[in-house]
Amino acid sequence: MLPVSTGAMTQPTTAMPRAQAPTHYEPPPENRTGMIVAVTVLLLLSIAGLVFAFVKVLNKDDPPQATDIEVPNVIDKTEAEARRVISDMGFASPQTVEVTKDDKTPGTVFDQSPAAGKMVKPTTTIILQISLGAGSEFPPNVVGLSADEAEKSLKDRGFGVQRASQTSIDVPEGIVISQDPTPDRLLQKGKPVLIRISTGGQEITMPDVTNQPIDQVLKRLTDLKLRVAQLREASETIDTDRVIRTDPVANAKTKEGAVVNVVVSDGFPKVEMPNVVGLAQDVATAQLTAKGLTFTIDTKIDDSNVGKVITQSQVAGTQVRKNTNIRLTVGMATPTTTTTSTSTTTTSTSTTTRPTTTTK
Predict the structure, then answer these.
(1) Across 11-87, where does the E strand assignment appear?
(2) Is 352 a residue whose pLDDT tops 70?
(3) What was the pLDDT predicted at 341?
(4) Where are the beta strands (DSSP E) in the chain?
(5) What is the sign, positive or negative, of the torsion defined by CA atoms of 310, 314, 315, 320?
(6) What does CATH list as the number for 270-332?
């Protein structure tokens, strides 16, 4: 039996070939290493170039480096000569150290550092050792002494003395302000020490400040650059805290920085009140008079203190102004009562007969 056809044709199935993946080139391992090295070198060279360019830009204004120069030989030269030679070579001023050296002339160079002939930068500091000769020592400190005291002190130590004057309102006239060389520097015996002596300040006329309040006087004298020393004193004519007198006196010539003694009133003079209780009236009043005090006497009946002081108006030991009146109470005896009577006296006359004696 033949198969029945449905009218649809069946296409034969054909197998398609499988697609292949694209192929990439892989260089050998040794070629990859070479490429990495090459790239790294290029990067390093680039960085180095940038750094060089940057540094060059930063340093384009820098001065050229100084050329080394030779250190000159200044041994046995004086300090002044050595300084001149070193300066002429282009070096800065040298440092000096003074040292006692018995076998070297005072004031000459006996050692230097760096040594002569060495090549160094011009900025190098050269150190010179200067001989002080034999018998050098530190001079005494005479600042603050009078000129004569300073000169004696220096001469006693074997040094000479050179004086110079200098004005100063801080240092009194005739006092040493400074000395050269200073006490911390060695100096050869016999050489002079310069002492600068104060001549004080400028000359001024002392104003009259009598009977003026002390606070105003202090300001006025201080403004004139004067130093003030206060003294206090009782006064019967000048009120408390006012000026009694000055030294120098008014209109006298003085100098700035000088000391002015100002005497200030403590008020009316005072004395210590004595204890006169229990003393006889005449003794008590004599003590008050000797103190410059006056007195008034009151009496009170007190048979146990007749003629003696019982009380005083001021407490003993206190300060009282002179001429103060002191009231004293003096004891007196109780008065005696007297009775008057009238009597009659009868006078009688009698005759006395003496016996007569006969002597045979």
Answers:
(1) 69-70
(2) no
(3) 52
(4) 69-70, 95-99, 109-113, 119-120, 127-131, 136-137, 160-166, 176-180, 187-188, 192-198, 203-205, 227-233, 243-247, 253-255, 259-265, 270-272, 294-301, 309-312, 319-321, 325-332
(5) negative
(6) 3.30.10.20
- Alpha-carbon distance 83 to 72, whole Å? 11
Q: Is-contact 140 158, C-beta < 8 A? A: no
Q: Tens digit of pLDDT for each residue in 287-338?
A: 999 999 999 999 999 999 999 999 999 999 999 988 899 999 999 999 987 6
- On whether the pTM is more than 0.70, the answer is no
Residues paired with residue 79 on neighbouring β-strands, in sequence order = none
Q: What's the half-sphere exposure (Cβ side, CA atoms, 13 Å) at 167?
A: 5
pLDDT over threshold 80, residue 164: yes
Euclidean distance between CA atoms 228 and 198, whole angstroms: 19
Average pLDDT over residues 52-81: 75
**Extents of the domains making up the chain:** 69-134, 137-198, 203-265, 270-332
How far, in Å, CA of 43 to CA of 94, rounded?
A: 52
Report the amino acid identity of residue 310. Answer: I
Token couple for 197? 């002596």
